[in-house]
Specification:
By secondary structure, the chain is α+β, with helices and mostly antiparallel strands. The chain folds into three domains: 107 residues, Ubiquitin-like (UB roll) (Roll), CATH 3.10.20; 91 residues, Alpha-Beta Plaits; 248 residues, Rossmann fold, CATH 3.40.50. The chain is built from 14 helices and 25 strands. The strands form six sheets. Strands 16-15-21-20-19-17-18 form a seven-stranded mixed β-sheet, covered by helices on one side. Strands 1, 2, 3, 4, 5 and 6 form a six-stranded mixed β-sheet that branches. Strands 22-23-24-25 form a four-stranded antiparallel β-sheet. Helix 2 crosses helix 3, helix 8 packs parallel to helix 12 and helix 8 packs across helix 13.
Length: 562
Amino acid sequence: MNPWNHDVAKDEKDLVDVQVDGVWMQMPRGLNVVEVAHRAKKFIPHYCYHPKLSVVGNCRMCLFEMGAPKMGPDRKPVLGADGKPEIAWMPRPQIGCATNIAPGMGIRTDSPLVKDCRNGVMEFLLINHPLDCPICDQAGECKLQEYSVEYGTGASRFVENKVKKPKNVDLGKRIVLDDERCILCSRCIRFSSEVMKDDVLGFVNRGSHSTLTAYPGKSFDNAYSLNTADICPVGALTSKDFRFQMRVWFLKETKSLCTSCGTGCNITIGSREGKVHRLTPRENESVNSQWMCDFGRLNFHDLESKKRLDRPLLKAAGQQFPATWTDAIQRSADALKKVKPDEIAVVASGRLTNEELFVLKRLLGELGVTRVDTVMNPGQADNFLRSGDGNPNSRGTELLGLSSGGRKLSAWAGEIALGKIKALLVLGGEELVAAGIPAETLGKLEVLIFSGILSNATSQLAHVVLPGAAFAEKTGSMLNVHGRLQRMTRAIPAPGEAREDWMILRDMRMALTGGNSLHSVEDVWKSMSAEIAQLSGLNWARIGDLGIQIESVLHQGQVKAG
């Protein structure tokens, strides 16, 4: 996925002896000094260096003091009292990003020389930098702020006027550039050219007048452009969507998953007071590394859509009206009891979590309903992260035996017209009219029950509407297209009276069959792992923040930690 992986050693067992701040230790051969210091729990500040991009050595912030074994007249290392080589230190510091370790190397990360060098670099970087911190979106997570506190001088000796550069530059559809804040680290340029193969950004002019810009006639609009706002160490590149919306220190961060396609990118949800303000990628080398597409990043505004369903609805005399959950669940149960099990069809959505699908599977088993399928939502696949499967949990529906890939669903329109299907339960907010079942056909149903987050053509025809919870409002697990089981955590409460789908299905099951053994997501998971062979032996903690790979989900049923 990445052209460079400086943080990953070629062979973790091929170790060499190095001295870091006076302590000898073993580190994998080939790592650079920045990564070695990180593993040694020492910190070397840096701006231009990024483990997934090429090394350019622009910023000079990662300077360290380097030494090599002192050689005797016999050209053999001189050993000290501890039996380790004595180090001969070089008079000039070196940059850690471009220096790979060698046997016997000495590294000083906090010597007086190193500290003086860092102070000097910071002073140069701040010469023309504007005092935009009070209005900058990067404030609170800005490396320039952090390093100026740690390594800055506290006062400036610069008395000349600062160089003025373009501000509020419309660099692309989703991103804004403030050139005065740019420290010329070139991370954005390297990401575009090396990772995305989109040569659109570059530097022009020289010295203090150098600026970042797009090539003439081009716009920075690739499908992953907002990743540059993540890796920009200062506030030069900012997202138009998040710009001036919220201070980052007010945000509550919750680990979750992107549900915009079957890849299941790991994300962090930034929310405050029940509102999601942004999604950012969370590192997982087995799924999305450190990136995510712009579509998935911005696909959270439906949470506050005007079409959002936030209370149950019942239909009478052709009109829908608000109702209580008790009435809605009871109306649904009474209606389903009036038809035979072979006259009921269920749309089990690939947008539901495994826990919600399991409760549905148990309900259908107790009712004797066998006509169940999913809507296949194609995605816009690319050669990077986006999957051709628009459902985030299609593999979960297959694992639980609730999908035939849309083959059954394609025949339902005719079966409804013939009266073979009299009741239809639609989950996950699936739009059946768009899926090929005409509104006139759905109107012939005796019972149409809809659960989802947004009103659509199908929900408007429903006799009962049950408002569900969106991805940021629920806890559960999903199985991505590569067979990796991952978990998501609720970041905000659902609006109004909306509920998580497993709760809706649990209450419906209680009303229909009397089953009431599932009272929490943990209860659902325990029952599911006990019944589904492929999940046997797994628990919530073992899945972890990075998920767990399940090999050949539909065939072998073996579990591999990853």
